[in-house]
Design a protein that fits this description.
By secondary structure, the protein is of the alpha/beta class. Helices cover 36% and strands 21% of the residues. The protein has helices spanning 16-26, 44-51, 63-69, 75-80, 99-106, 123-134, 188-194, 211-218, 227-242, 248-259; strands spanning 2-8, 31-37, 55-58, 72-73, 85-89, 92-96, 115-119, 138-143, 156-159, 170-173, 200-203, 222-224. Belongs to the shikimate dehydrogenase family.
């Protein structure tokens, strides 16, 4: 019996238990997946080991700490310094980041992307920038403040007000703007310069149509929210949890059913 969870704060909104428990049921596996609200990350390692989880998904704001406590780290988590999946085996912690490959799978139908602009400079932006760069995409980062841009010195970057290039194939909102209010990630004036030239847009928020998402639709862009990214990162994490191969379509079908996407 696998004891699994998604760990974060807040966490009650997470759809991961629905996805994973339905996949466990339909694939005939033995396991249970729950939510766990962690107050702070000071004792993340000790707390997770004490509870006895076999593996966990990690969400905000603990992804960087999850990376730090791991004994072994995959390529993506090593390059971005954060992990969203931890597996506990033989008294060792193995860290993975499935957000990046989940994102790439979600935008698979976005063809011929040569240039991408990421709005925001948080941990999600780091992951998306890295996997896009690995695919040969020219990535540019823009942010409200300069402090976080120091983590993107291997990419072209600027403050919003200093942005001079407005010609990108893909515009990504990696910020939380619009999650609990009607804010845009940057000024509407900047977006009115960017969106007419773009072909695609991606909004990482998945539980509502944000102002950014609605504005992209007004410009007739092909736009997706983060629901498929959530789905695919979950599929890849599930494979790690149960050490599965050649079951991806079954896992995906079960998780889609749980999310009511079919």
């Amino acid at each position: 019996m696998k004891f699994l969870a998604v760990v974060g704060n807040p966490i009650m909104h997470s759809k991961s238990p629905r996805m994973h428990n339905n996949a466990i049921k339909l694939l005939g596996l033995k396991g249970i997946y729950t939510r766990y609200c962690l107050k702070n990350d000071l004792f993340l390692k000790e707390e997770l080991l004490k509870i006895g989880f076999d593996a966990v998904n990690i969400t905000a704001p603990f992804k960087e700490k999850a990376y730090e406590i791991a004994d072994f780290k995959d390529e993506v988590s090593t390059h971005v310094g954060s992990a969203n999946t931890l597996c506990f085996k033989n008294n060792q912690i193995y860290a993975y980041n499935t957000d990046g490959i989940g994102f790439l799978q979600a935008i698979k139908e976005f063809k011929n992307i040569k240039k991408a602009l990421i709005l925001g400079a948080g941990g999600t932006a780091l992951v998306l920038a890295y996997v896009l760069k690995q695919k040969g995409v020219d990535v540019y980062i823009t942010n409200r403040s300069a402090k976080r841009l120091q983590y993107f010195n291997t990419y072209k970057n600027s403050l919003y007000e200093d942005l001079k290039d407005f010609d990108f194939d893909l515009i990504i909102n990696s910020t939380s703007a619009g999650l609990v209010n009607d804010d845009l990630p940057c000024s509407e004036e900047i977006l009115h310069k960017l969106l007419p030239n773009a072909k695609f847009a991606f909004e990482v928020i998945y539980n509502k149509e944000t102002p950014f998402y609605k504005l992209c639709k007004k410009y007739n862009l092909k736009v997706k929210n983060g629901l498929e990214m959530l789905l695919w990162q979950g599929v890849f994490a599930f494979e790690l949890f149960f050490n599965l191969k050649n079951q991806r379509e079954k896992i995906k079908k079960a998780m889609i059913q749980a999310l009511n996407l079919d």
